[in-house]
Amino acid sequence: MRISVIGCGYLGAVHAASMAKLGHDVVGIDVDPARVETLARGIAPFFEPGLSELLVEARDRLRFSVDMGAVRDADLHFIAVGTPQQPDSNAADLRYVEAAIDGLLPHLSAGDLVVGKSTVPVGTAARLAERVATTGARLAWNPEFLREGFAINDTLSPDRLVYGIAPGDVAAVTVLDEVYAGAIKAGTPRIVTDYATAELVKVAANAFLATKISFINAMAEIAEATGADVTQLADAIGHDPRIGRRFLNAGLGFGGGCLPKDIRGFMARAEELGVDQALSFLSEVDAINLRRRSRMVDLTRESVGGSLEGKNIAVFGLAFKPDSDDVRDSPALDVAMHLLDEGAHVVATDPKAIETARSKCPGLDYAPDAATAARDADAIVVVTEWAQYKTLDPHGLAPLVAARVIIDGRNCLDPAVWRAAGWHYRALGRP
Ligand code: UDX
Q1: ipTM confidence score
Q2: Best label site of 125, 173, 220, 426, fewest CB within 10 Å?
């Protein structure tokens, strides 16, 4: 099939490369010439395992352009632009979606299918469908559930496909089945529904995941007040298959380009619809999440004697989660900045996210690796659970950190091992 993908950010770049891998002819469109040039050279513009390899492997069927006119050869057009939070409210900023549709309309032909993948407030697809219909083309909404770090696998082996279509548009279902034929395994659930349900599936899923994380982090607050261990609590309740252990890792909470802005955008949309009460619990989910960051700063302050002024703090981790260089709404970077605000001398490190963090927070000091960051530190704080931090050797680090203080913001270290090596180990939600 001949496909265009409008927007080559995280979602679009992965989607374009994955569609080419499935054998389609793909053109990716982006307004940023530097990004287009990087992608065209077979280089991923951000860290995502396997993406650069895929760009090279699929290069014969994949091109990138800043020229919207290049979509003319295609008859299936994916909208994969970002919908960030507006700077002065909780609502999603739809300007890139609108711009994508504005740019696409003059190039659409009767019979084309436009497929929205971006996360949008419920009601957006119905509105856009009317505009698309003026050209004789049609619209479907097909939300994406990919996780950073697993984005290619999640796209090529989805755990479900959701098609939101106009009433009776069976032709759209046929087209989408054809485009994903190489990704659909026997038994892959495929939900064909209306636009509103398809839009809601995405935000409801993210709201549920955020709630699950904040639930266990609320339990961490109780554990801290009672001397209980939230990690054992999570293991124990997670054995109940109705609950499940995944997404019950207590710690610094959620960040990134999706969960925080999606729950806020969902609340803003519910308010517009006059059903804000239905989602008022999400403001608690958000508040619990943000409280973990302050608690981490409090714990660090306590652990170095009551004031951070002039203390050397080594921060291990900057990305919002491991296997990513993304620092959007990163709890790790937020903690680092708060420590700095309180007068600490912060040296931060991360296996992949130093450059993205530096562009956002030039005021921090950055070190290339954990040992360099730890030199002469009064305390180490672990804020992203990268595999290399989980296996750090407490004996190896001990000569660098005279006070032997470590604060585990992700419950990713073994307290027994660190304590046996003479460290003062503190963690969120653990005695
Ligand atoms: C998320 C959704 O999982 C994905 O389906 C959607 O398409 C986009 O948003 P992503 O942002 O890549 O994906 O990250 P995810 O792995 O979901 O983690 C989100 C945040 O939650 C991270 O900051 C992570 O550290 C945190 N988290 C996750 C926890 O704090 N505890 C957990 O148990 C799990």
Answers
A1: 0.97
A2: 173
